[in-house]
Amino acid sequence: MSVSALSSDRQIENLIVRYSHLGDEGNLAEFGALFDEADFVFGELTLRGGKAIEDLIGSTLVVHEDGTPRTRHITTNILIEVDETNGSAVARSSYNILQTAPDLLPLQVVGGGRYSDRFVRRNDAWHFARREVTIDFTGDTRFHLKGQQSA
Predict the structure, then answer these.
(1) Which of 79, 78, 77, 69 is nearest to 110 (CA)?
(2) Beta carbons of 136 and 109 less than 8 angstroms apart
(3) DSSP 70
(4) 53-63 burial string, b = 16+ CB within 10 Å, else e?
(5) Where are the domains of the chain?
(6) Which helix (H) or strand (E) holds 23?
(7) DSSP helix/strand/coil, 68
(8) Residue 75's beta-bridge partner residues?
(9) Which residues make Cβ contacts (< 8 Å) with residue 86, sequence separation at least 6?
(10) Which residues does 81 contact at the CB level (< 8 Å), separation at least 6?
(11) How far apart are CA 151 and CA 149, in angstroms?
(12) The dihedral of CA 99, 100, 101, 106: what is its sign?
């Protein structure tokens, strides 16, 4: 099935989920490319373009020997509102980040929060226009974020 054959809701949901998969796989180049023509907002920081986001994530996340951050982003409560006439959409969702590492057992939640997204349709496909990431909860991030202190 081609992308254009999918409903707008489904295409947008796929983008939301692709973000999680690419991050969990450690594929930072494709992760950043999701925002080639989009804003990525994290607290007071706003970045635009794939390379800027790739560089930010690469300088922030711990990548383990297997080439991944050893995480699973679980995105839930996805609420999508599409304006087909204007080729725009908004979405809200919640996320939890699970992680395990040799020195971080058992599997645990290291963070959780919300995504607030805007999308635009270009060339019959949906793309991120803006993602705002809010962190509501954090756990033991020593093996997830660079520069964290040992417990």
Answers:
(1) 69
(2) no
(3) -
(4) bbebbeeebbe
(5) 3-138
(6) helix 8-25
(7) coil
(8) 95
(9) none
(10) 89, 90, 91
(11) 6
(12) positive
CB atoms within 10 A of CB 144: 22
DSSP result, 88-106? EEEEEEEEEEEEEETTEEE
Residue 22 parent element (H or E): helix 8-25
The Cα-based distances of 82 to 14, 45, 79, 86 in angstroms read: 14, 27, 10, 9
Non-local CB neighbours of 21 within 8 Å, separated by 6+ positions = none
Query: Angle CA(111)–CA(114)–CA(21) in degrees, nearest 5?
Result: 70
pTM for the model stands at 0.92
**Interval 97-150: pLDDT, tens:** 999 998 888 999 999 999 999 999 999 999 999 999 999 999 999 999 998 755
Is 3-138 a CATH 3.30.230.10 domain? no
